[in-house]
Amino acid sequence: MPTASDDQTQKRDIAPDTAAEGDPTFGLRRLAQQELDEICKRHVRFLSCLNGGARANLSLCDLTYLDLSGRDLTNAELNGARLFRARLQGTKFACASLFATDLREANMVGANLCRADLRGACFRGADLSDAHIMDADLRDGMMMKPGKSGALKAVSYDKNATDGSLAKLTAADLTSSKISNAFIVQTDLTDTILRNVKLMRADLSHSNLTGANLEGADLTETNFTGAIFRGAILTSAILNRTKLDSADLSGAMFDFGSLMNADTKGAKLPRRLESLEAELGQILSAHLAWINSAGKEGHRADFTSVDLTGQDLTGVNLAAADLEGVILKGANLSGCILTMARMQFADLREAKLTGADLRGANLMRATLVHADLSQCRGGPIHVMGANGHRWSTSLEYARLIGVTMVGASFQHAQMVKANFGQAKLRDVDLTSADLRDADFTGAMMSGVKTDGADLRGTRGLGNDD
Q: What domains, with CATH codes, occur in the chain?
């Protein structure tokens, strides 16, 4: 909600002729909402090749605080425009020219910026959550405009280079975009898609890249000091002289060979099996003794961030084990007991979990691409005691792409934003599961029970928005 000071700013912006030369509004044409609405209507007619249409040219216009949410401005001109705190939710800017545009603190949730020219644009403090920014140009750029004396002045709202500092890019898609070495984002890149981006020499120190997809990205000489990569995808990424000093790479997927040329001093990396204090068999025996004695004997198994690729753990009892960030790619976990196990960020790609007991297990943000979960039991477990309650299995934000589920049960499971893309689901019980914003795009489904399930925001189930 605009404050009293915001109202004063709006009143001042209406009269740009009186603005001082150093003021951001100097030389800009202030538009009223009604005039902007009419320009947008004519632009839609232009895109549809109808009479009365005209391409929107909003270059060097002051649109501070105005509402463009949901409008179609494909191919529009907005060079040097001021959109400070504008409402741009779901706005289509595909192939538009936003060179040196002021987008500070704008609400751009779900906006479409695919193939847009965003060189020199300022995103400081903008909310770009769920925005589509594929193939966009986010490199440096500078626009000039004449001052009162006639001399050219640089259009500058915060910095002279593309600035994304303090911007929120949660779940935004920047696939194949060109990103400037000055595009600094020190806050939230959670679940952002950055596949094949050119991000050389950028400063992303202390950024949160939890769950981000950087597959095939060129990260040459990029500074990720202290960054968080938990559950991130870095396979095929170029990590030439990349600075990963003190970065948290637990649960991240990457090619070990690619780290050879990176600076990983102090980074949190997967542990080798040989680095454990005891043999695998001894650890499993001690864990079984711990279970059977209710914790009085033996030791709880701790495989946090341990690489167990390809291990055969058929029928092993790992109930309540600590498996956070464990790498179990291609492992055989058939019939394995994993009740109430901690498996957040676990890498279970191509793992065999046929008949496994996953009741009450925490698989939040786990990667189960092409895993086999047939006959799995993933329903709730009832915890005994005076305050006994039902403990549900969690697959929130889990990657279940191409997974096979035949005859599995996940009643009451937490599956918010789980990705079931291209999965094979047959006779699966999802009764009363929380499936909000889950993605079933391309999934082959038959006999799937969703009675009582929360299906708000799901995709691929025929109820897409």
A: 279-465 (2.160.20)
